[in-house]
Structures are given as structure tokens and as C-alpha cells.
Amino acid sequence: MSLIDSFKLVLAPPHPEARPFLLASGATTLVTRFLGKKLSCPLLRHAGTASGLFFGFCLYFFRDPERTTPARSDVAVAPADGRVVSVEKIAPPAELGMGTAPVWRIATFLSVLDVHINRMPAAGTVTRIAYHPGQFLNASLDKASELNERNALSLTLPDGRMMAVVQIAGLIARRIVCSVSEGAKMEAGERFGLIRFGSRTDLYLPPGVEPLVSVGQTMVGGETVMARL
């Protein structure tokens, strides 16, 4: 990644989900710093500094950069930025009704420093969305797929095959945002939600499709090719 690309990534405009956080922390920063100076109160000045830092963190965390998705219909791209922590065969989430036959699952862990926008891995129709309440374990743990709060989507490809994407809350994350509904026709790389703050995204490939990535690799949501369909 070039220096210019790095700046573009850091300075990307925030997702609309950031607005309440930015408004609250921005207002708190202005008020506490003004009162701290007016009243000569170090405690208020420190509070203003802390809220200002949180404002900057929110700008960074919610950044929503543009991505260039491969112009190919025969590949599945990464649904999120982050590091691959698991590649294994396992049955899709039961709540999606996709059967019990094991398929390849690629789990990507997103730290608080990663872009948290979720993107569609391929073009298709969202046929089912199932929310499942749960715990908030460290999302890098394998058992997070089963025990943590999650939101699962099944995607039917134009040829009728199915794949799934699961948004999983993590140790710090307390809100999963899904901006699409059942029946929505999506393009590869198109945004469909986000998870705040720190999370995991699992991709279940169609039967017979092999992954092209391995544990430890870094993914770029909407760009990195995970499999050939």
C-alpha cells in the first residue's frame, strides 16, 4: 500500500453510524473545555481532552473507505477487513436452514484498528437473515461462532448455490448493524452493515468450493479474493 493510499484509508469519511458518537463526544469536548477554562478547573479540562481523544477514535474507527471489487462473477471476496483466524469445514448456522453438511468456513477477526464495514462476498439475493442473541467472548476464539451474539445472512447466488455471512459481536462490541433486508439483491463488495467495536465475520462457502486463503492472512473487505466460485 502506497503512502497516498494509507492517507486515504485513515482520512476516509465516517459511516453514518458514527454520527451520535461524534455529536456526543464533540459537544462534550467543547463544553468541558470551555467550562474548564472559565472555571479554572483542571478536572474539566482533562475531561475535555479525554472526550476529544474519543472523538478522534470514532472518526478513525467508523471510517468507510471506497473499495475496488474485482470485476468478476466467479470469485468470493472478503466480507470484512481483518486477520483470518480459522479455515475449517463446519456446518452452516442452523438458524439459516442451509442443511448440516460441512462446508468451508473462513473466520476473519477484526481488531478495533480495522475498518469495520461489512461487504457482500458475491452478487446474489439475501434469502434469510437470522439474529441470535448470545455472549460477548473474545471474537478471535473459535467458540465465538457458536456462543457470541451474531447475525447470519444467507445469500443465494445467480446459479442457485448458497453461501452465508455471519456478523459476530466480540469482547467490546455491543451492537451489530445490518442495513439490508430479506429479498435484497446485492452486488459483490456492496456494504450491508458493520459491527462496533471489535468483532468477527465468518464466511461459509458454497458446497464444493475451496478457500484460497489461510490462517494469518490479512483481508481487505470487498477486495481480497477468498475463493473461486
UniProtKB/TrEMBL annotation:
Q: Which UniProt keywords apply?
A: Cell membrane, Decarboxylase, Lipid biosynthesis, Lipid metabolism, Lyase, Membrane, Phospholipid biosynthesis, Phospholipid metabolism, Pyruvate, Zymogen
Where, by residue number, is the active site?
199 (schiff-base intermediate with substrate)
Q: What class of enzyme is it?
A: lyase
- Alphabetical GO biological process terms: phosphatidylethanolamine biosynthetic process
Main localization is membrane
Q: Which cofactors, if any, are listed as required? A: pyruvate
**Modification after translation, per record:** Is synthesized initially as an inactive proenzyme. Formation of the active enzyme involves a self-maturation process in which the active site pyruvoyl group is generated from an internal serine residue via an autocatalytic post-translational modification. Two non-identical subunits are generated from the proenzyme in this reaction, and the pyruvate is formed at the N-terminus of the alpha chain, which is derived from the carboxyl end of the proenzyme.
Q: Which InterPro entries match?
A: PS_Dcarbxylase, PSD-A
The membrane topology of this protein is: Peripheral membrane protein
Annotated metabolic or biological route of this protein: Phospholipid metabolism; phosphatidylethanolamine biosynthesis; phosphatidylethanolamine from CDP-diacylglycerol: step 2/2
**Protein location:** Cell membrane
Share what the entry says about its subunit structure, partners included: Heterodimer of a large membrane-associated beta subunit and a small pyruvoyl-containing alpha subunit.
Q: Please identify the protein, giving its name as recorded.
A: Phosphatidylserine decarboxylase proenzyme
Q: Which organism is it from?
A: Acetobacter orleanensis
